[in-house]
Amino acid sequence: MNSSLLKKENFILLLIFSIVLSFNLSACGNSKKDETKYTVYYPDYSGESMLSKETSYAADASTKKTVDFLISQIKDNDEMALPDEIEIKSTSFNKKKHELGINFTSGYRSLNGYKETVLRAAIVKTVLQVKEIKTVSFSIDGQALTDSNGTVVGAMSQDTFIEDFGKDQAALITKRVKLYYAYQDGKSLVAVSRTLHYGSSTGLEQTVVNTLSKAPYEGDLRTAFSDSSKILNVSVSDGICFLDIDSSFFTDMADVSQDVALYSLVNSLTEIDGINKVSITVYTGGTPDTSDAFPTGNFEKNTDIVSADESGMSN
After folding, report:
1. Of the candidates 117, 166, 173, which has an alpha carbon nearest to the alpha carbon of residue 145?
2. What average pLDDT is seen over the chain?
3. Long-range contacts for 76-82 (Cβ within 8 Å, ≥24 apart)?
4. How confident is the model at residue 31 (pLDDT cuts 50, 70, 90)?
5. CB neighbours (10 Å) of residue 282?
6. Which residues face 192 on adjacent strands?
7. I need a surface site. Which of 28, 150, 235, 267 has the fewest CB within 10 A?
């Protein structure tokens, strides 16, 4: 065979191979782009601690298909023993409220105490990664899930469970609290109820402050301050909650009055049993501010700034 012809054929084969390889690499790249990564949380064998693993699923899948997949990943783990009697009868999604409803069979009642809370936290933390879902509610045979006191647990969000949930299990505490968020106009506060789970090392007052810094799931409400606001220290002594706050807390506010930001904290913290006042010290450049530019001193609850109470809790 003519050497020039052979070289030409080899060139053509090499070109075809390059095109095929390029196409395959492109397809692989698109495949990865078309999948969304998730962290799946699930209880361990004891049911008293939470583990996690990474997975991925089609980015264009429907909310229901994605939820079904993630829940299957929670159940199908060699590292845990989920009781066979705990089954999901149905799921529903309220697009307007962005709320996922999960209805269990009566077998869910076989769980109680800490094990139930760990499983619930695992499911909620997992499915809330689906971007369309903002809250999750549980029911058993169509009846809303209630706690040991018979109180409806209600919709759960990212703020319902502390980030290090499962690490402080021996001292886990569950508390129903009233929190004050800013109304959408930024000029008044609205009281709402939340069920918080926290460890004794964290403390309820710190958990309240952390929760207030996260955006609420109610569409007409907003946080009075962001999680970037620097609250330097929280402590309680003799009925007074002491807050050390960086001056940026007040200077970085957007479309919220100073009083709304202040009393979002004060009103929420004074809802905690044993706290009657909040003492605020503002720091500028690492030292206490003495310019009188910021509110400092002792503050009590201010009900005049509250426009509505949607908590369902009595004062």
Report:
1. 117
2. 81
3. 77/42, 77/51, 77/53, 79/42, 79/44, 79/45, 79/51, 80/42, 80/43, 80/44, 80/45, 80/47, 80/51, 81/45, 81/47, 82/42, 82/43, 82/119
4. very low
5. 21
6. 179
7. 150
Return all residues near 96 (Cβ < 8 A) that are at least 6 apart. none
Six-digit token string for 91: 């799921």
Q: Residues with Cβ < 8 Å from 224, sequence gap 6 or more? A: 180, 181, 182, 189, 212, 253, 256, 260, 261, 264, 265
Return the amino acid letter for 308.
A
In this prediction, residue 285 carries a pLDDT of 80
Residue 45 has pLDDT above 70, yes or no: no
Task: Determine the residue type at 136.
Answer: V
For tokens 């769980």, what's the residue?
111
Distance CA 88, CA 144 (A): 14
